[in-house]
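Components:
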Amino acid sequence: MELKSKYYSTLEENLKKYDIPAEAAEKAYDSIQGPEELLFSILTFLIT
Amino acid sequence: MVENNAMHEQSKRRNQNFVDVYEGRIPKSIPISIGIDGAAALEYAGKDLLVDQYSAEEIIEAMDHTNGLFDTDTVVGMSSRLPSFYKILGAVNYQMGADGYMQHPNVPGMDAEDYDALIEDPVAVCWEKVVPKFYKELAKPFPHNVIAALKFQASRQAIMSKLGPASREIAVKYGKVTQNFTGGRTRAPYDLLADTFRSFTYVNGDIRRMPEKVLAAVEALYPLCVKMGMPKVPPSKTVRVSMALHMATFMREKDFAKFWWPSYKRIVEEFVNAGYGVFMFCEDNWMRYLDYLYDLPAGCEMQFEYGDAKVIKEKLGKKHIIQGLFPSTVLRVGTVEEVERTAKEYIDILAPGGNYVFGMDKSILRAADAKVENVQTLLKTVHEYGQY
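Structure:
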């Protein structure tokens, strides 16, 4: 079950948002999706 | 070098005891999982909470001292809820008491009229409603809020980047468990609604006044809870998703069965179906809910605070892993003889047949909660008497 929010984007959504080619998905994971996941973990800390 | 090898072997044995229990085998000896909070560790090391918990170096020194003092299986004395983070954020949900201990007041993160927004997008409600209510500095206009957020993250990084490696070094130094058995932490969806969004006080009124919205909110929070807890390491029964269960025992069974239990059972099944184990701290007294717990997928580790150890073992002990129950008050007020006798009583009831991790009813939060000689006696007793 995927989390949907205007404040959380999947890698696919982020590639589109930042205009990054889909072929770069694997190489962009750490630099693009990493911060998204870090932000989610910060939110988890803040709300619990 | 000889000592290092002995410690390495001890770590391996302790790792293996947990692995055996989690994989359904009887271990060589009972693994021990007792919690000692960072504040207690600082106090056992003679440090001042008001001053020393701002420093990673002081915390590490206290952890080293406490782990040397107590022959626990796992590293104790680590805390991630440190005051520097909450001071920078202007927190109202974590506040320092007069003696330096961090308190967690019951603060509602949103109002009743925000239910529809929560049902629509819970993460948005977290950022837009909850975070500004919990943290005064983050409620300020740009750029003050962004500056506070960056300072908080820098402080967290500065401290936690030292505590993590130090904890691993301490595990090696004292021959403690070096394998990480906790893959994630999350909440039961209803508990998240209660703890974070509506508070213990208001949520019970909500289930009378707007039951459909409460059910829809629990459903909306479900994916958030799954994402919070899902481990990022390969699936294994030895990797546990940890949940402290708060609200269930304060509800009437009819409400529990309708509002609390279905989403909880589903989330446990979700983690188990993904290949992980689940640890749950059943806070308070769960005796009236043991049949529900039995229904969860086999191999869940259940720490109990109160209850009848014999009944719990009899009802759940063949299917699930029992933990907890040892009354920590004995460590505070008892003699070493009472500690030894009580530990043996619990082991006699809970250890036969395996599926048991020795634990207490609750963590040691402050040094005054447990006399040093009593904790040492407890650990010595379990190490010696807890052999299969």
